[in-house]
Amino acid sequence: MRLTAIKKSNPPVDFCRCNCYTTPPDRRGFTIMLSFEGNFRFTAAAGLVALAAIIAGCQSSDNSIAGVDTTAPAPPQEKITQSELEAFCPSISVREGTSAFRTYAQGGDGDATQVVYQASISDSTRACKRADGQMTIDIAVAGRVVPGPKGQQGSITMPIRVVVTTSGQVAFSELFNHQVAVSDTKSATQFVFRAPPVVIPVPAKGQARIFVGFDEGPGKEPADG
Known about the structure:
Layout (H helix, E strand, L loop, with lengths): L31 E2 L11 H15 L4 E2 L2 E2 L12 H7 L2 E4 L5 E5 L10 E17 L2 E14 L6 E13 L2 E14 L6 E6 L3 E4 L6 E7 L11
Parallel strand pairs: 4-12
Antiparallel strand pairs: 1-6, 2-3, 5-6, 6-7, 7-10, 7-11, 8-9, 8-12
């Protein structure tokens, strides 16, 4: 009888054999950021599912030495309440009557048939950091520009005011001229305005507020509605 040697195949390579680490959040230095909503909301469900599958595979790999589990238990995470979030970063809102801004053809002020562009604010957000008794606030405003009956390609300069109050007193107020180029006269043009960082002394809990809006100066009627 003739004997035939059988060659053993190499064992399959475990491509998910990895060491996965997580870094617990440091509550003392966290930054709060509220995302845009409405037209600026994005869905990342597919990416989250794929990431969850990879993490699950890593977690199922061998993390033991000689039968002893070497995986360190995750430290408990502290829960942050809504009131703590609001205390850390002031609320932000669009001041009533300042959410819209219109430009008119020459000599057509106030005439709806002479509108060149109409801009509107749809979202606003902010992020806060604290250090050495100071609060640094990053503020952003999002919206769109819609061509009117006299719409044409060009640009619109929008007067956007940012105000921060503490204990009912104005701590910061500045007017910014934000320019947006309009190339499509048949649909809306989206815009995002980011103000330079605002630095104020850390306010008492719940005593600071942020307001944004268009400011055309005294004597101008609000364009809302």
